[in-house]
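so my prof wants the structure for this chain in the tokens format not the other one, which i didnt know existed until like an hour ago. anyway here's the sequence
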Amino acid sequence: MKLVRYNQLEPQMPASFSGMLDRFFSDSVGATLKQFNPAVDIAEDEKSYEIHVAVPGMKKADFKIDLVDGKLTISGERKLEEKKEGKNFHSIETQYGSFKRSFFLPEDVIVDNVEASYEEGLLRLLLPKQEKKVNKAVIEVK
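here's what i got, hopefully its the right format
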């Protein structure tokens, strides 16, 4: 089994016209305060899985990582600081707001040994695997 991204489907079209207007205005007016999806890279070798989440400008305390029933959830919030100090921003392309990424883990992950670290804008999770047990038997022909 592979590490699989959890995809929580968001309704594409609101159920009512007022819901469509609410979505339109909240998406355009609150563009800097809504949720965003940071880029995630997943790698695997013989001993472990690695998850890298690109979230520059955050602190270690800004993250919450939960592992419940084989579902790993990484969430956090990047806040826009209001320090202008003589600067007039003409464009802000950095995404701010909260994020939440979830993944279903394979059964071979050793849950008690999962490690997380944050350095230089990259949240790294190391998910060690259990050693594969090779069932080997010699069958005698009669």
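also thought this was worth mentioning. Confidence is low (pLDDT under 50) at residues 28-32.
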